[in-house]
Amino acid sequence: MSASISIFDTTLRDGTQGEGVSLSADDKLKIAKKLDDLGVHYIEGGIPGSNSKDIEFFKRVQELGLRAKITAFGSTRRKNTEASQDRNLQCILESGAQAATLVGKSWDFHVHTALQTTLEENLAMIYDSILYLKQNGLEVIFDAEHFFDGYKNNPEYALSVITKAAEAGADWITMCDTNGGTLPHEVYDIVSTVVSNLPQANLSIHTHNDCELAVANSLSAIQAGARQIQGTINGYGERCGNANLCSIIPTLQLKMGYDCIQADSLKQLSNTARFISEIANVHMPVNQPYVGGAAFAHKGGIHVSAILRDSRTYEHISPELIGNKQRILVSELAGQSNILSKAKEMGLEFDPSNENSSKVIDKIKDLEHQGYQFEAADASLELLLREANGQISELFTFESFKMLVEKSAGQPVVSEAFVKVNIDGQSVYTAAEGNGPVNALDNALRKALVQSFPSLQEMHLSDYKVRVLDEKDATAAKVRVLIESKNVSNTWNTVGVSGNVIEASWEALVDSIRYALLGQINQNDKHSNIESQHGLVNH
Amino acid sequence: MSASISIFDTTLRDGTQGEGVSLSADDKLKIAKKLDDLGVHYIEGGIPGSNSKDIEFFKRVQELGLRAKITAFGSTRRKNTEASQDRNLQCILESGAQAATLVGKSWDFHVHTALQTTLEENLAMIYDSILYLKQNGLEVIFDAEHFFDGYKNNPEYALSVITKAAEAGADWITMCDTNGGTLPHEVYDIVSTVVSNLPQANLSIHTHNDCELAVANSLSAIQAGARQIQGTINGYGERCGNANLCSIIPTLQLKMGYDCIQADSLKQLSNTARFISEIANVHMPVNQPYVGGAAFAHKGGIHVSAILRDSRTYEHISPELIGNKQRILVSELAGQSNILSKAKEMGLEFDPSNENSSKVIDKIKDLEHQGYQFEAADASLELLLREANGQISELFTFESFKMLVEKSAGQPVVSEAFVKVNIDGQSVYTAAEGNGPVNALDNALRKALVQSFPSLQEMHLSDYKVRVLDEKDATAAKVRVLIESKNVSNTWNTVGVSGNVIEASWEALVDSIRYALLGQINQNDKHSNIESQHGLVNH
After folding, report:
1. Is A409 part of any domain?
2. Is residue A518 part of a domain?
3. What range(s) does the Pyruvate carboxyltransferase domain occupy (chains A, B) (predicted)?
4. CATH of the domain at B493
5. Which end of chain A has fewer CB atoms surrounding its CB within 10 Å, N or C?
């Protein structure tokens, strides 16, 4: 039997204290549902005493009927008052939460500097507040703020704080590394001492990432005997963030033999992380451990050829266990094995001994030398590979474009584009405005095509990146444009490179639409009616 | 006396294996210079056998005369061949590097699966290759790939591999956690065993961040007796990245009592991290430990009032030690003091109690909210401050521009710009071509101005950067353009922001020229002849 670790999620409370993270009550409810599906044991929803958004959350979350315990956060009572008269404690009781996290001081320096009260009164504040909530039927998690700094400064007082919390009946005692400055061996030593002083207590750990050690510190505490981890999805939180549950849960479960959540739920981890980053509107780093898009992406040539023989050679776990997947990136560092495996992934037959195939490998290398980057432009790469395999029939050809940007003093800037394409032997000439030059080009190009290809109505550009390649050449430098496009079911990426940002954008735009229509060709091929519909125009 | 730790930087090699990181030879040279200023001891520049870009880097880096040891990376000789006949080893020798990192297998599974040779031949490959490079005068760092996985699978063989490397004369023996799956306590135990087996060897640690433990694993190895850390700036690297030197160096130096780099250089850490993220064009997470923009940012409420009483209450170190700074979010204090110190730096009199001054502070904050960034655009900020101080008299005013990009199938793209400005009451209308839209605008604007202001002939644009701000808004997103300009004696930076890349570029171009002419005003003011020459046109 392996030990169980309780997972306490504070994405909705401490997570929202991170810069750039701001969640509406609706957002919080969506995230709570997702966290519950993942199987966390506690969901700290916010501070009911602080704002109406959190009050609304606590009210509406009860209707969802979640399995996780909904937890409200607040401070111990104010100095020299009664717990029953404290407004914050009252708000917690009124919130309807099943559990309360109560934060109290355990660093004597803070008692003097921040609270400006005596060490004795601080102990009374903690004892009274916990007792009051327990008497009112709540489960109580006591958060000992600055516990490690406090312990280093005055171990006796820090221990007396959590002993007092245990006496008052706290269900969990959380040791917080509030400033994130403690090191893993210090956490291990201090938690070990606490375990031997309070052998009956349920201990919990709450760390911050200021030294990039929040995950390691959480694991250290577990190894020393703590049985609950407080953290957030994707490590959101004040300053450098909280302990990242997306890294902690799989490590505890897959490598250290602890039980946290169901193995089946673990497969939802990557999806959960991405979902919450979308709701929070925070860009998810591609290299995020375990759940990031590049966590199992292989770029180096040697790596790739070994991975193809046996994935254990360069993967520490099987990505499927956490719902992520292996990807092979194409880059100048890699040999042709990357391109071959990409072709295989795309279901293309591709024989490296064949002359056509080695030509396309040379072509890709040459394009990369010019500044193209296919690792983030799968769709452009697929178009090249299919072209080399003779599998592409173009549905339209380009004749010309003009793009005009005009501005007069005091007037808003105007962008217009004029596009001429040939569809099925017919020249189509259109004009459109846009809120910028690329938007105008995009609008004009779709306008020209959408009557013949109505499926283009369902796609849109979802991401646009520009990178100046040799910045020293200033405005004469090459730029690389990466475009991400989406329709209801798919996302694809294309690339364009030119000394002219408009031409580079145009290239990526055209590839995006060619790729969208490629799907249409394949789809229509199955029904054998594409040729009679449009006639195929060869490139 | 505290122990010294050698810092081995592999940003230019392993760092470029990260997704989205791609560096030109020029980029690599700029980064090498910056790393040398920081004081790292080894700079691994690339793989001289792999591509022409790396060969160029190793050639040109010698001209920089850096203090750090320039290091070339490569594999041990191929199986069943002579070291002296090995092409990769030859490339390392020809590169001119002072040191070589040689990677060899230490996991028996890899010897069989990836190399497909015998355990004995692998030992011979390692021994021969190290000996050959040592005989040719190079310092050799032996990278024992997959050392921890190898040790767990077959400790005897893993130890025999590094023992063999030591016998061949390797100067450093690096234990690599190549797949990033090892835990800190495992690293500590295994490194401790190695230390007792090879007490004379110089041991180095190389970790990856697949479990978000790369920093903790590096520190564990040091605590067990290793004396070198291999890592990258900002943790760039394959998959989830390498050990992040920006977190490791300050922790070792400020918290653990080791010597890594000079205390003065440590103050360059934040700047170095930001510079390299700009060159690599990889977005730096605001919550990055130590060096990120939010690492010492405090949101309103309890934290802020405590911080104002004593910054130790919520900061684990003083941000100045690593060149970062405290920020109080949602507070007037932070912005204002920044602007005041900037004004002082520029020699401007600037009184915050004065109404004009508080207006310009509000204006700057509003612009920053819109996406302007003055940290990298001193000249644009100076124009704003001088304007507020009534110190600017414009020498020209803008009337209108038009910018046309045209392309027909099979023809090169054409860019033209038409600019109308007013100089001294006279309208001047010019047209020019360029190799891109911004270049055309630049050409047309100078053409309009240069007759009246011949000094503009001496300036040119030396750097041009584009960043898409809200990538999710795709082609409707705002972009920020940063332009660097130079004349014989000065360099200055300007910024423009707009939903339209052309308009944003225009803004930055105009600021650049206004700034150049500001110099002229000042210069001419001294000779008191500017007004009679041109008459001042008020903006």
Report:
1. yes
2. yes
3. 5-267
4. 3.30.160.340
5. N
Total residues found in chain A within this entry: 539
A466 to B461: CB separation less than 8 angstroms, yes or no: no
Who among A114, A297, A466 is closest to B19 (CB)?
A297
For the residues B353-366, what does the mean pLDDT come to?
A: 78
Q: Do B211 and A296 touch (CB under 8 A)?
A: no
Q: Say whether pLDDT at A223 is over 60.
A: yes
Comparing CB atoms, the residue among B51, B240, B462 nearest residue A474 is B462
The string of DSSP letters for A487-530 reads -SS-EEEEEEEESSHHHHHHHHHHHHHHHHHHHHHHHHHHHT-H
CB proximity B404 to A under 8 Å: yes
pLDDT score, position B433: 95
pLDDT average, residue stretch A184-203: 98
CB contact under 8 A, B402 and A402: no
Q: For the domain that residue B82 is a member of, what is the CATH number?
A: 3.20.20.70
Is B83 part of any domain?
Answer: yes
Q: How far apart are the CA of A358 and the nearest CA of chain B, in angstroms?
A: 18
Residues B363, B245 share a domain: no
pTM score above 0.95? no
Contact B256 A183 (CB under 8 A): yes
Give the torsion through C-alpha atoms of A196, A200, A202, A203, to 10 deg.
Answer: -10
Residue A33 and residue A171 share a domain: yes
Contacts of A439 in chain B (CB under 8 A): 475-476
Nearest-Cα distance to chain A for B375, in Å, is: 18
Whole-number pLDDT of residue B337: 57
CA B303 to chain centroid, in Å, comes to 31
Distance CA A303, CA A292 (A): 19
Tell me how close the Cα of B110 comes to any Cα of chain A, in angstroms.
7
Which residues in chain B have Cβ-Cβ distances shorter than 8 Å to A293?
19
Tens-digit pLDDT profile for residues A472-521: 565 667 888 888 888 877 788 899 999 888 999 999 999 999 999 986 54
Same-domain status, A274 and A401: no
Q: How far is A301 from chain B (nearest CA, A)?
A: 10
Q: Considering its fold, how many domains does chain A have in total?
A: 2
Q: A328 pairs with which residues across the strands?
A: A298
Q: Distance between CA atoms of A457 and B434, rounded to whole angstroms?
A: 35
Distance from the B526 Cα atom to the nearest Cα atom in chain A, whole angstroms: 32
* pLDDT one-digit tens code per residue, B105-143: 999 999 998 899 999 999 999 999 999 999 999 999 999
B34 & B143 share domain: yes
- Boundary residue ending a domain (A280, A300, A318): A280
- Residue B185 is predicted with a pLDDT of 98
Could you tell me which chain A residue has the CA closest to the CA of B400?
A: A408
CB A523: neighbour CB atoms within 10 A? 11
Spatial distance between the Cα atoms of B418 and B426, rounded to a whole number of angstroms: 16
Chain B neighbors of A442, CB-CB under 8 A: 475
B180 and B240 in contact (C-beta within 8 Å)? yes
- The reply to whether B130 falls in a domain is yes
Report residue B536's pLDDT band, with 50, 70 and 90 as the boundaries. Answer: very low
Q: Out of A244, A287, A404, whose CB is closest to B19?
A: A287
Does B405 contact A500 at a Cβ distance shorter than 8 Å? yes
Lookup: tokens for A365: 């290398």
In this complex, do A298 and B498 lie within 8 Å of one another by their Cβ atoms?
A: no
In this complex, is the C-beta atom of B428 within 8 Å of any C-beta atom belonging to chain A?
no
* A95 at interface of B, judged by CB pairs closer than 8 A: no
Task: Please tell me whether residues A34 and A167 are part of one structural domain.
Answer: yes
Give the range of the structural domain holding residue A260, as residue numbers without chain letter.
7-280
Statement to judge: residues B348 and B252 lie in one domain: no
Q: What rounded mean pLDDT belongs to chain A? A: 88
Distance CA A233, CA A221 (A): 19
